[in-house]
Amino acid sequence: SSSSSSSLPASYSNGQSKVVAWLQESEEMDKCAEELARCQSSLTELSRLLQSLEILQRTQSAPNFIDMQVPLSASMSPVRLHSSNPNLCAELADFQPPVSSRLTDSVEYASDYIKLQEEFCTIAQKAHSLLKSAFNTVAIEKEKIKQILSEQDQSDQSVQINSLRKSLSLALSQNAELRSRLNRIHSESILTEQVVSVNIIATPDEAAEQMGIPLTQQASNESRLSMSESVSEFFDAQEVLLSASSSENEGSDDESYVSDVSDNISEDNASVTDNVSRQMANGDFAGSSFRNGRRICLPAPCPDTSNINLWNILRNNIGKDLSKVSMPVELNEPLNTLQRMCEELEYSELLDKAAETEDPFERMVLVAAFAVSGYSSTYYRAGSKPFNPLLGESYECIREDKGFCFFSEQVSHHPPISACHCESKNFTFWQDVRWKNKFWGKSMEILPIGSVNLTIPRFGDHYEWNKVTTCVHNILSGRRWIEHYGEITIRNMKSSACLCKLTFVKGNYWSSNVNEVQGFVMDQEGKVVHRLFGKWHEGLYCGVPPSAKCVWRPGSMPTDYELYYGFTRFAIELNELCPELKDVLPRTDARFRPDQRHLEEGNLEMATSEKQRIEDVQRTRRKWNEENNVKHEPRFFKKVMDGNHRERWVSNNTYWDLRKNPGFINMEETVSLW
């Protein structure tokens, strides 16, 4: 306040002199400044406590590998795909720490965590009170200034007075924002909502199941404040403004498998994108696909699989490709691989944002966030597997709310290859992926072979990246959980200005970095421009804490999601078939597949019968084709050779034209898949 008063000359008019005198004599502004200073100190302390809470929760977020692999003779709650073989994990028995030791460590964790929470709440309430007082003081002083200014003519107001009013208005705005943030932090930190339960009287066999302190992986359904949620509140997840980061040299010679697709593919896709965008604008895709209301729950919950002995099914297939092994229908979820590919577009708004971002490095950050977001829906899906598509099976998804049109097709059966294509006014997305499943006794690895492609026509960008390995642990016993590990390299095939590398960290017995993703965006000289970190199921951040910004966070899960295959809201909508769609979809669309539909409706007997019948029909058809030297030709995709002479499957640009004219309902089906 003293600096403000010294900047005003004493020779001003009567009204201005009154303002000067008020500023010199006012003690309220000094009091406000002191309160804001104390509030700033409290916020610094809150930041320190947040980091401590993060360390505690990250320590507890790793899966308890020994607890998750207890022998089947232990008393455990039933989980999906549970086995009854007691010998698989017997060798781990000697490595289990005493239950009393685990209970003591867990109680100590709970005590430290509660103390930190109590201290956090106390300081948050103190800062909130200081900020409220400062806010009221500023408001009172503002009214005094308005009263003084009203006593003088408008013509006598000076530039300095206007500047003072603008400064006070800006201060009020900033204080209101700070107050809102403190309110959010305070509301998330109420101890009554963060109950940490410890069953001290648990039996040794139940201790690992009932302990409420460790934040286990997918098997845990407790609603807790995760590290990502608390950190994102502090970082203000509403902002996607990417902060500048260091310029360290992080160049690496290790390159992941990425191919160079020829230019003509991108040009063809760009022209189709323009065509489809015009059709969407003209309402050519009218029908239920453009209705606002979509279903919010599946017709029936997932079945009980505790009576299925997987060991009898899988013991003769260790080290083999499981895509050729027929599984009970109860082990499936009511979606297939073609629909799973569409799930990767759940957060396509990241690509829309990238299409509006001028800076190429920030654009790459958004593309990286999109690549990570495609894995988030798998977090609660370790309990089941998607249906394997039949050769020639297809799937269509038009989302007017997201502004894209998607279709996919199973173009090869052995090896199984799925191809998809998605068009929007802002981007074109396509991929062809072959999945190889390997069963290793206690886990199953899913190795994708292929590449993902994305073009953003506005900037002439063509991004390409690979996928990482997926592993489902504890297939036969214990709590099953899923992880992704490996490295993704994202390149802009049209420019060498920037490159992105993402590492999905593999968990182990001694590490707590479960589900972590680390990465960076660097320029063509190898200097790091942006740093990325987070967890693939919680969110991705850009920068360095505490100034890092949240780029992406997954949406909340629907009610009782654990009873409905762990589906997200987006996944629940994918297999919905309304009357209007029946007349416009091709008969090969996955929505018409009877075994998958019966499973969704909870009719296991019919689902099992139809699955067996469909598999028999497929084997008969394949045998007939081989005997008559008939080669299957995909309807909506064609095979091309990329710049490295690798086979690629891309759209043949016929799907949307055939849908419009003559319409799939008016076309004779050469082969009935079902």
From TrEMBL:
SUPFAM superfamilies (UniProt xref): Oxysterol-binding protein-like (SSF144000)
Pfam family, one: Oxysterol_BP
Keyword Zinc (UniProt): no
Record keywords: Lipid transport, Lipid-binding, Transport
GO molecular function: cholesterol binding
Originating organism: Nothobranchius kadleci (African annual killifish)
Domain of life: Eukaryota
Family, per entry: Belongs to the OSBP family.
Protein name: Oxysterol-binding protein
InterPro entries in the record: OSBP_sf (IPR037239), Oxysterol-bd (IPR000648), Oxysterol-bd_CS (IPR018494)
One GO term describing the cellular component: cytosol
Record GO biological process: intermembrane lipid transfer
